[in-house]
Amino acid sequence: MLELSVVTVCMNRQQHLLQTAPKVQAWAAGLGLAWEHLVVDWSSDVPIQREHLPPGASVRLLRVSGEQHWSASRAYNFGCFQAQGERLMRLDADCWPQELNARMVHALAKHQVLQGAVNGGSEGSWLMSKGLFQAVGGFHELLQGYGCDDIDLRARLQATGVDVITLPKQALGVIHHSSAMRVAKPVSHGHSGFSDALNRAWKDALVEANRWAVVQHPWSSQRSRTTYIQSLLGAWEANVSSIPLPSNALASELQDIRRLCFWSTFLLIPARLFQTLPRSWFGELDGDGFGVRRWHRLYWHSGRRFCLGLRLITLKLLRRAF
User: Fold this and answer.
1) pLDDT value at position 290?
2) What is the dihedral of CA 223, 138, 236, 25, to 10 degrees?
3) DSSP characters for 69-86?
4) Three-state SS at 67
5) Each residue of 127-169: pLDDT tens digit?
6) CATH 3.90.550.10 in the chain, residues?
7) Which of 146, 189, 285, 293 has the least CB density, counted as fewest CB within 10 Å?
8) Assigned CATH for 2-181
9) Sorting pLDDT into bands at 50, 70 and 90, what band is 318?
10) What's phi and psi for 253, nearest 5 deg?
11) Do the Cβ atoms of 114 and 126 come closer than 8 Å?
């Protein structure tokens, strides 16, 4: 068995992966350990090509096909349970070890976890034994998209008495980017104020619903994870019937939380006020967004800047006009 597996999952973020993969390889090669860098292509629109990654047998590429949306929890569970190393290191496509020295890696005890600095952009990165990861069941697979997966994993590890050590900010390098990149399939492309606000609200909606899922459906090693089947061509695909789903009641709650958080954040409408407005005014979640229409766009560019009373009047007028 290998001593270390660095696991990176990528969905349409090749521009980051191609910058960080050589840095990961250079760092790992100097550790004095038997290692691999396992790269998982999570159904990128343009498949990752092996020849674009650093050469050598230590870099391994797996592709999961058939996934329409980003799922950090399911994606990293797939990669980590496929990994062959005794220790696992999760590194997103935008991260690389910068000042994480070999001594820190070699000295890691079985009951310890090294985690990226909070608010440093690398808090989702960590290093731990594979046994620890398996003991708590890996990531929570009911969580959608991005957010709260690392917080939930850390809480479950600490509940078992594991010592989670936060690394200095400079230990891991990070390519900083917009919220659109974090959700992998952005609601709106581009870098205008409007598109950035739209993607930020979408990200916040996912995070808020994921927090509620963690509370209402605690994860453990007793939960069933998604299983995958490998095709003759080598790609993997999820067994759809094995993907964990929330109960109908919880699914409805999560939908309402995402909807409330998205619209109240995006249009700067207080949550309590939003709940009193006609439901027909605001779109429902459809997998890629919330049905933002023309009058919502006009309101974002104008009415949301007014005082609360004028916001309501503007909403009503625009709704009637369109």
Assistant:
1) 76
2) 180
3) S-BHHHHHHHHHHH--EE
4) coil
5) 999 999 999 999 999 999 888 999 999 999 999 999 999 999 9
6) 2-181
7) 189
8) 3.90.550.10
9) confident
10) -60, -45
11) yes
